[in-house]
Structures are given as structure tokens and as C-alpha cells.
Amino acid sequence: MTHLIERFTEYMKSGKYNSQTVVAYRNAIFVFYNVVRDMPQSKITDEFIGNYLKELTEKKDKAEAIQAGKALKLFYDVIFNRKLGIKSTGESKEEKLPDILSKEQIKKIFYAVTNIKHKAVLLLIYNTGLRISEVIQLKVEDLDLINGTIKVKNKEEGYRHLSLAPNIIDYIKRYFVKEGPTDILFPGEKGTPYSSRNVQLFFQSALQKAGLKDTNATVHTLRHSYAVHALESGMDIHLLQYILGHKFLQTTSIYNQLANVDLSKLRNPVEDINLNEGELNFSHY
Hints:
- By secondary structure, the protein is mainly alpha-helical.
- It has helices at residues 2-13, 19-36, 46-59, 62-80, 103-112, 116-128, 132-136, 166-179, 196-209, 219-232, 237-244, 249-252, and strands at 143-144, 149-153, 159-163.
- It is globular and about 65 Å long.
């Protein structure tokens, strides 16, 4: 973890933080590291960090403890892309659940988009729960339309390989025929990737055309909606964690609070067993 602290230090030095803040935050992280150095990250929950900060407040000056809380929140955000659900004092803060679009609303949005490139961008986001930053950086070579997969670069390192729905594959093929991208999958007018702002703008335009302008939806809402709809379809949450590229399962588990799973529609694996064959014949009892 010490190398992560060094990376965090370089991040602060290259930003808006003065030398005193850099030293204070760095020291706070090292003190915390000495407490958790033998613990796996999965055990360092928000509750654990919150309790640590509360104890720090009792042992030291309150202002110093709050500064440590700010350091930890920034550290986990920068290094692990993890938003701690606690205040700098260690107290928990109620996390606002993300807005979700219904399947019918999403259909209306896609039906409202007439530009084939714009629709392809939004379809890929909803098909695989991609972030805007991920979809606009995609290259043609990242798609394998024969096997129906797409390769997405993770925030930290490596790639995750995701499946494309058959109707998405067909639509992407139509997009290739019309636009003929050769390098960047969704190039803008100057051949450079779309900006996040451009994607938000044509998504907001689609919301208005679909009669959904009063919603608080953004492009990221498609990602949230995909996650909830996937869980409602019976997807395992660990698989969803992989698809979304979440480092921690607790980040993915927030969608459990929004999913309305109809248990009667889920198929039990025992249904695949023919009870009239082989040894599973109970007629002699």
C-alpha cells in the first residue's frame, strides 16, 4: 500500500494542494495504513473507517481528526475510485439512491433518437452499463462482432470482455455500413472522440423528444438502469460487479435496493431434472 500512498502524494503535489496539506494528508494516510496494513481491502468498510475516525476524535484534536477524514475520503476516491459514504467526522451520511428509468421509458428514448451514431452510443451504454468515458474511448479493434463481444479498458489496469446482445450487434453492423469508422469507434467531426458533453447533449435532446424532459436522467442513468434491470432479470450480482467494472461489491450492492425481483419468474435449477428417469424414481416408496 505504500506505493499507493506515494502515488497519492504525487497526485496532490500536481494539483491545488499546498505543501502543508500534502504533508498532513500524507501523514494521516500513513497512520491509518499502520492500523490496517494486515487487513484485506474488503474488510476496510465505510463503517470501519468511520469508527476509526470517531476514535481518532476522542484521542486527538477534533480538527486533526476531521483533516484525517478528508485525507481518507480523498485517498479512497483518487486511488480506489471509491466514494466513502461517511462524513469527514466519521459519521455515516445517507446515500442518495440513483435515479432509474423504466424499460418503457428507455424504449421511448431509443425510439426518439434518429441519428444512427448517437443511437449506437446510447445502445452500447445500456447494453453493457458502460460509463461515458469508456464508450467514447472505444476503438474499432475493441469490437468482435463475430463472437459478439466488446473489450473495455478498466480504470486501473487490464480489460474486461463483455457480451453484446444480438440486436445490438445487428445495429452496430448497420452503423459500420453507414459511417465506416476505421480507428475510433465513434469519432466526432474532427476525427477525435466525442466529448462527454456532446453525448449528454444528444441524450438530453432524446429525452425531450421522448416526452421525458421532466426527469433528472443523465447518460449515467442508462448505466444505473441497466444494472437494476439486469438484477431484475436474475443476473448474479458478482457478474454485474464485473460488467460494471466495480472494484468493490458494496458499490454494486446499492442496486439491490432498487431492483424489484419477481421470484416467481426465476427458474429453479431443479426444474431441469427429469424426475421420471434413472434413480430419481420414487414409485417404490
